[in-house]
């Protein structure tokens, strides 16, 4: 998420000695400032499913639909394992419900869920970033009222099964990230569109959102394209999770049908990283799309289920400072490593989750060749659900921090580290790149949380691996 630069001297005065160690050794002189409000960050999340509807996806769509329960059970608005909803009819009921909420906040996410396809050739329901209704994919006109799933709905699971059954008649130029970006553009209000022309001509937000036809842009106080009678799919203050399910890579990186990123920008990016063998043209293309999501002013986390090209048994660095061992190669359709890596980098750099859509249970040599089998969708969706649930358990930082430089304030009062304060404090959670609170340090309702830190890496280093391009 883009933020205005913060004067380093002013910020240092605010955080004082807490930054002394980090500021002496870190090569950056720009402090990062993440600000959150307790009232809204913990519970609101907009989950956009991007499902491949090309002609090879029938089995994967079936697996996705059949195992939705494993996903939704991670954070459904239910009072117990039997699915009994909480009762708010009396003061006593409300008190009990509030206690249940406090003790099990991760099971009370206030979600919006919707589905788009990877098809960028169509212009109607479910295609080109139009969140689909329960009508057939490609039917109707643009901006038809989408089916947005919410916790209070009567048939979330049943309608989800219908929505992810997107068919197999879509374009062979599958592009999950491009369509997710268009969906976000089409979810913006009239103020966004009124101010779009004021952005620089080379800004990714302006370049990409300019592709939305005028009739699909909100004007005045009218609802945006991706909205229903209850409001927009993408809500102010909500986190956004993009779940992409595809058995091929993202064709957007080829530029064959999008022409993005702009050639002049791409060449400049390649030239700027000429001395970095781990940051090539593919990394530049991924960076352009991630810069778009950053520029939309909301935290976006990617969870991607897609093919792999890495060899099993050769762990690669991940953006949380650890490593992952991808059980590949399992790339049935020969997608380029660049198009496959786009999905992996999006998950890595947003500190999301990458799941290979096929897992190699064999070997990696001619004598012991790969044996690729379909992913266990139940496990995959359980893990994605846990990732989304985890968004409610801390304040996710926009960059990986220099740990020694972190300083945390709640309503302008500095909070101690948990290790230094038995009664309560903050701690860094590396798996989520988040700040979590404990004990009496947990921020109260409407509290403002300010987190200052120096970044540990730039984006090129942040990707943290040697890429084959």
Largest sheet: 5 strands, parallel
| Proportion of beta-strand residues | 15-25%
Question: What sort of overall outline do the alpha carbons produce when their principal axes are compared?
Answer: globular
What is the CATH first-level class name of the largest domain?
Alpha Beta
Number of domains: 2
- Within CATH, the superfamily of the largest domain carries the name von Willebrand factor, type A domain
Could you name the CATH topology of the largest domain?
Rossmann fold
- Structural class given helices, strands, pairing? alpha/beta
Q: Going across the biggest sheet, name each strand in turn.
A: 3-2-6-7-10
Distance between the termini: 28 Å
Please state the average pLDDT score.
80
Please state the second-level CATH architecture of the largest domain. Answer: 3-Layer(aba) Sandwich
Helix content: 25-40%
Query: How many E-type strands?
Result: 18
- List segments where confidence is low: pLDDT < 50 over at least 5 consecutive residues: 1-28, 77-86, 459-469
Determine the number of helices (DSSP H or I, runs of at least 4 residues).
15
From the alpha carbons, calculate the radius of gyration and give it in angstroms: 22 Å
Outline the structure in words.
It is a single chain. This protein has 469 residues and is of the alpha/beta class. It folds into two domains: 8-40 and 397-459, no CATH class; 43-393, von Willebrand factor, type A domain (Rossmann fold, 3-Layer(aba) Sandwich). It is built from 15 helices and 18 strands. It has helices at residues 8-15, 20-25, 38-41, 58-66, 68-72, 91-103, 156-164, 176-186, 190-195, 204-209, 263-272, 281-295, 337-349, 377-390, 459-463, and strands at residues 32-37, 44-51, 110-117, 227-228, 231-232, 239-245, 300-306, 316-317, 323-324, 353-356, 358-360, 372-374, 395-396, 407-410, 413-415, 426-429, 434-437, 448-453. A five-stranded parallel sheet has the order 3-2-6-7-10, sandwiched between helices. A hairpin with a 4-residue loop joins strand 16 and strand 17 (434-437). The longest helix has 15 residues, at 281-295. The model is unreliable at 1-28, 77-86 and 459-469 (pLDDT under 50).
């Amino acid at each position: 998420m883009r933020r205005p630069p913060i004067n380093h001297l002013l910020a240092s005065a605010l955080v004082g000695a807490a930054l002394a160690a980090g500021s002496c050794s870190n090569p950056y002189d720009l402090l990062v400032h993440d600000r959150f409000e307790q009232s809204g960050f913990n519970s609101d999340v907009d989950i956009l499913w991007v499902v491949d509807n090309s002609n090879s996806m029938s089995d994967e769509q079936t697996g996705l639909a059949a195992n939705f329960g494993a996903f939704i059970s991670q954070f459904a608005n239910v009072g117990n394992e039997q699915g009994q909803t909480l009762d708010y009819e009396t003061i006593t009921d409300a008190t009990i419900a509030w206690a249940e909420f406090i003790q099990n906040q991760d099971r009370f996410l206030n979600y919006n869920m919707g589905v788009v396809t990877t098809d960028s050739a169509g212009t109607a329901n479910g295609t080109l970033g139009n969140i689909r209704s329960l009508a057939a994919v490609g039917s109707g006109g643009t901006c038809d009222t989408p089916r947005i799933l919410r916790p209070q709905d009567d048939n979330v699971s049943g309608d989800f099964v219908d929505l992810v059954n997107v068919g197999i008649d879509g374009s062979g130029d599958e592009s999950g990230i491009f369509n997710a970006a268009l969906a976000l553009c089409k979810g913006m209000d009239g103020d966004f569109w009124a101010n779009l022309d004021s952005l620089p001509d080379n800004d990714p937000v302006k370049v990409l959102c300019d592709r939305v036809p005028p009739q699909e842009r909100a004007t005045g106080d009218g609802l945006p394209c991706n909205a229903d009678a209850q409001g927009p799919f993408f809500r102010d203050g909500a986190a956004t999770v993009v779940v992409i399910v595809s058995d091929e890579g993202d064709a957007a990186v080829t530029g064959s049908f999008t022409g993005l990123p702009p050639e002049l920008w791409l060449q400049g990016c390649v030239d700027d990283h000429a001395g970095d063998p781990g940051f090539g043209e593919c990394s530049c293309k991924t960076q352009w799309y991630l810069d778009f999501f950053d520029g939309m002013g909301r935290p976006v986390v990617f969870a991607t289920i897609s093919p792999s090209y890495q060899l099993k048994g050769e762990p690669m660095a991940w953006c949380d400072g650890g490593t992952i061992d991808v059980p590949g190669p399992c790339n049935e359709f020969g997608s380029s490593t660049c198009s496959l890596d786009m999905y992996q980098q999006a998950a890595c750099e947003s500190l999301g989750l990458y799941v290979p859509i096929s897992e190699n249970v064999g070997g990696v040599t001619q004598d012991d060749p790969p044996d690729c089998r379909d992913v266990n969708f139940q496990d995959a969706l359980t893990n994605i659900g846990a990732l989304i649930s985890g968004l409610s358990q801390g304040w996710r930082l926009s960059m990986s921090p220099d740990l020694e430089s972190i300083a945390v304030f709640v309503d302008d009062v500095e909070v101690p580290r948990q290790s230094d304060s038995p009664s309560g404090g903050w701690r860094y959670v590396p798996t989520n790149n988040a700040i979590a609170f404990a004990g009496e340090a947990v921020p109260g309702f409407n509290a403002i949380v300010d987190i200052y830190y120096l970044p540990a890496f730039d984006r090129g280093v942040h990707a943290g691996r040697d890429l084959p391009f």
